[in-house]
Amino acid sequence: MRLSSETLSRLPESVARPGYDRSAQAAGIVHFGIGAFHRAHQAWYTDRAMARGDRDWGIIGVSLRSANVARQLNPQDGLYTLTECSAERNRMRVIGSVQRVIVASEEPEAVIAQIAAPETRIVTFTVTEKGYCRAADGSLDPFLAHHGSIYAFLEHGLRRRREQGLPGLTLLSCDNLALNGRQLERLMGEYLALKDAELGAWVAAECTFPCAMIDRIVPATTAADRKMVATLARLDDDGAVMTEPFSQWVIEDKFAGPRPQWENVGAELVGDVAPYEAAKLRMLNGAHSALAYLGLEHGHAFVHQAVGDPAIRPLIERLMHEEAQPTIKAAPGQDLQAYADALLARFANPALQHRLIQIAMDGSQKIPQRWLETLAANQEKGLQCPAILTALAAWLRHVRGDNAAKWGPVDDPMAARLADIWRDEGVDGTPRALFGAQGLFAKTWQASEADFAALAQRLARATA
Ligand code: CS2
């Protein structure tokens, strides 16, 4: 029997459930990219905010293309379990904030109508780095943006709001991009400049784009996880998500209208997100990507194995403490030393089963804000980053296909282009084609001759 509004009462007492009348809630939020991360993060905060008395913040989820999540959640009335996993115990809760999932490619009009609905106040996004349709230099790639992107749906939905005299919206990016709100604002502006400049002016005046730092480790759910959940919940749950006990959400307090009282359930509303975001991207995500490429080369499958490997761990510590941390100007009360230590403990959580190959995906979209910004900031001070350069060499080998036999083909929107560069330029030319003055990533970081020498040395070394 499957989890749903009807079967909810069959759950054992130990499983917490929504403490509010779900059917009485209007949907104040439209969320693009309703994958496991959103369900374990924002939907969880919103569920608890409503349990504390907040009202009408139901979430309508949108999947741009895949019907998987709709198939998982719609037959369950949007309900799913969230399990917090640690070595000590697993704690399960049913989340009630998601009402329905729309597959945009199947029902585009329903998405537009939902954005234009009077009760909608906030649109949020976890569409991953590549969902923003940026070219290598960070500007909007019009070709990508014109084909079923978030921008097209926002354009139509916001135009309708304007025509109907409805207020603007808060457009809140929850993806791992540097200054994600500023980027979304700029990219949306670039898109509307091509499509409808008048609407662009209305959006600039009526909508806001707060920046946010979002953090919770959420491995992809496996069949074994679903089996475990079924045993504990005594119901099948196709939408189950597994995560760690830790969670953090720091949001720039810049809303166009009402918002949930997320601060009552642990979120931090601040004036400036930048120091939190830089710490998270450069330390957590930077270390994660390094663990991924180095760990796969060393034959590991999971994060906790890679961080426990004495051949890898010192390099991760160096990357965080000596290379990333000094580039961040901490906010008052922000302790970066303690932050790095806490990250090492989170990575070591053996109950999470966080796959390195999941993190290795889409490296071309991730390394600029995770590594290249750190390299650039150190370069300004005349410093080199040996740990990041070692990780960068491992990434170069990864996109050459060195890990493919064991871990599968390279999963990256730029995979074909990177493979072409490797084939045409070889080991001598590839680092320059990517990180030279004319390189693909030149906008974020340009390697010095010493960096190229260090990369060449690392690439020459036998793998692992
Ligand atoms: C990871 C992130 O897959 C990845 O690239 O680094 O998803 C990471 O787990 C989250 O950002 C943690 O908040």
TrEMBL record:
Chain ranges of the Mannitol dehydrogenase C-terminal domain: 272-442
Enzyme class: oxidoreductase
A GO MF term: oxidoreductase activity
Key word Transmembrane present: no
Xref: Gene3D superfamilies: N-(1-d-carboxylethyl)-l-norvaline Dehydrogenase, domain 2 (1.10.1040.10), NAD(P)-binding Rossmann-like Domain (3.40.50.720)
Transmembrane regions listed in the UniProt entry: none
Keywords associated with the record: Oxidoreductase
Pfam families, A to Z: Mannitol_dh, Mannitol_dh_C
Enzyme Commission code(s) on record: 1.1.1.-
Repressor in keyword set: no
Coiled-coil spans in chain: none
Domain Mannitol dehydrogenase N-terminal: start-end pairs: 28-263
InterPro entries reported for this sequence: 6-PGluconate_DH-like_C_sf, 6PGD_dom2, Mannitol_DH, Mannitol_DH/Oxidoreductase, Mannitol_DH_C, Mannitol_DH_N, NAD(P)-bd_dom_sf
Name of the molecule in the record: Mannitol dehydrogenase family protein
